[in-house]
Amino acid sequence: MRAKFLHFSDCHLGYQQYGSKHRFNDFSRAFMNIINTAIAENVDFVVLAGDLFQKRAIDALTLNSAMLGLEKLARARIPCIAVEGNHELAYYNEAIGWLRFLAERDLLILLHPTFTSGKPELQPYTRRQGAYFDPVPGLRVYGLRYLGSSTSAAFDGMATALNEAPTDGIDYRLLIAHTGVEGVLPGHSGGLSHAQLAPLRPHVDYLALGHVHKPFTFDNWIYNAGSPETCSMEEVAWADRGYYLVEVDTDRTRENGDAMHVAKLYANQRRAFHRLHFKVDHCASPVDLIDSCESYIVRRIADLGFTANGDASQGPVVELYLSGVLPFDRSGLDMERLKSLVEEKFNPLVCHVKNGTQTSDFAIDADEGLDRRQLERQIVSELLERDTRFRGQSAEWTELALNLKELALTGADPDTILEELSAQMTRLADLPGTPP
């Protein structure tokens, strides 16, 4: 028996990321690109492992995007076999969700077993309900929707039920589920362990997963294609993700003991995302930071081989992330100027500048026995010395700050204070080491 199918998930149609209508369209475009690929590859069926939609409550444009793609598959006589993900499960007070609506329109084959006393009943898909469907003679597809905290128990039940299920005439079995696998995303809890998945192995040739946006595969039988579009900046590092094209040949295992399929991961077309990391530690002044950051951006553009498009709607999403310890006061960090630099170089659709910098430790080791005036002078002087802009003339800047404070406390009028400030600034400007 030979067959060919396409496996994808996590399209998140309807996601207007960053409040941008262009990002809304990007998610629809990625979905349609995969649909067109399935048709061009002449697959026997398509597997959708959940999260077709971004949320349970969708608008007309989102539903229209889904129906356009699924109707195109239907006209090509390619069934789309799906399970519900966590983003699209119906509310408790609703009879059906939107994936069930699409199944009622015969645009999806939506699989999920009925559970009786915690045990799944593996009934064939009839009257738009059931646990399995046979898209090709000899090939059976089972489905299990997102079950949250009940997932582990449901997988145990599926292993038992599959062990008891008749296999006459079935040479290849596929299970679709919307769940993660433990350890794929460091620092993220949840997902099934390999020990929990192991009981399924004798009964499932291909485990088609969705839910985690990072692509992964294990042991030639567990596959997760990742998200077709970039749902967060953290996903930028996962370049090759989108969908699997899988060719099944049950004669392969008889010949050489290999898996009965060959699965290849492909990256679909999507909008470019660029994440830039700039460390500020070496920048002695705000002006130096701006100049150094501009040089860094130019180098990164060259490394990326990027050429800005004249139309920002076609541009990338860019994030500039600042890290390190600022050697000057945070008020000197010109975030708007940095954002302008990124916009000038990339002409992006969306630009974010995020400040992850730290200020130097401002704890003061005050000398014992100092009176209030001496203590105040020591604190101001130490704070100024920790800012590279004022370090060379910290004594003079300390005097200026304390003099201005004294004028204000003694009731001097604003004009007098401004005159004193102007005179002192003129004097300081002539001294060597004065900051720009």
List the helices and strands and how they pair.
Blueprint: E1 2-8, H1 21-40, E2 45-48, H2 60-75, E3 80-82, H3 98-104, E4 109-110, E5 114-116, E6 119-121, E7 132-136, E8 139-144, H4 151-164, E9 172-178, H5 194-197, E10 206-210, E11 216-218, E12 222-224, E13 242-249, H6 252-256, E14 261-267, E15 273-279, H7 286-304, E16 317-323, E17 325-326, H8 335-346, E18 350-355, E19 358-359, H9 372-385, H10 394-409, H11 414-429
Total beta strands: 19
Work out the helix count.
Answer: 11
Helix fraction, binned, reads 25-40%
What is the number of independent domains? 3
CA(first)-CA(last) distance: 76 Å
Shape type: elongated
Q: Largest beta sheet: what is the strand line-up?
A: 4-3-2-1-13-14
Which stretches are low in confidence, meaning pLDDT under 50 for 5 or more residues running? Answer: none
Report the mean per-residue pLDDT as an integer.
88
Under the CATH scheme, the architecture of the largest domain is 4-Layer Sandwich
Percentage of residues in DSSP E strands: 15-25%
> What is the radius of gyration?
31 Å
Query: CATH topology of the largest domain, what is it called?
Result: Purple Acid Phosphatase, chain A, domain 2
CATH class of the largest domain, named: Alpha Beta
